[in-house]
Amino acid sequence: MAELNLTLLSVYIIAVLFLLLTPGPVVLLVTGTAARAGYARAFLTLLGTNLASLVLIAFAVLAIAGAVTLNRGYLALLGIGGSLFIGREAVRSLREFWAQRAVLVSDKTVQAGGFMRGFLTGIANPKDILFFVSFFPQFIAISRDFTTSITTLCLLWILFDFAVMAGYIAAIKRFLPVTQSRRFAACAALFLLLLAVCGIVWNLTGVKSLFL
Question: Average pLDDT, stretch 135-162?
Fold first, then answer.
């Protein structure tokens, strides 16, 4: 196995932790699910978001290796579709709160989180491929072997991604009073809605490239 640059690897780990601790659509979905539906459904949601991360990372690695050419315009279209999905789910959650209906895991019409919802929310941000494409090359030098470097970077990202999200779930269920859980879920939905709007606006500039 190729020798690793431990200094650069440490910088990468710190950078990843700071990035993952920053709230985004996935964090808000997972924590909102934990507040409303409990550990089991929150962890199912987390597994879905992790699978989405693996898919995005795989495309990013192919792009870095020169095997895939990414078209910014098509990525923007996917981003708009993903933002619309996130916005729809946020509006649905807000309607539940305003109607003061109990959300149960067994509810057949509306369920908080879940594996597929986690996956779709995670995959709905294809611009993350561009993030990985720009982020990983800065740390490729942790090893002289490309395969060793990219494998290490990807595995550490997935490990810390799962650990940080699991920490959020534990914190929500341990420290958030039951009486406040629905309010927290409503706040999470509001943030998701805001992020969806910002995502649509951000991606519209990318779609223009298809018509130029």
Answer: 87
Distance of CA 164 to the CA centre of its chain: 12
How far is 116 from 19, CA to CA, in rounded Å?
24
Q: Is the pLDDT of residue 28 over 70?
A: yes
* Ramachandran sector of residue 11 (left: φ over 0; alpha: ψ -120 to 50; beta: rest): alpha
- What digits encode the pLDDT tens for the residues 65-90? 765 555 667 666 766 776 787 788 77
Helices (H), the chain: 6-21, 25-37, 39-64, 72-99, 115-123, 127-135, 146-175, 178-207
Hey, CA dihedral for 21, 198, 180, 31, is it positive or negative?
A: negative
The Cα 24–Cα 39 span in angstroms is: 20
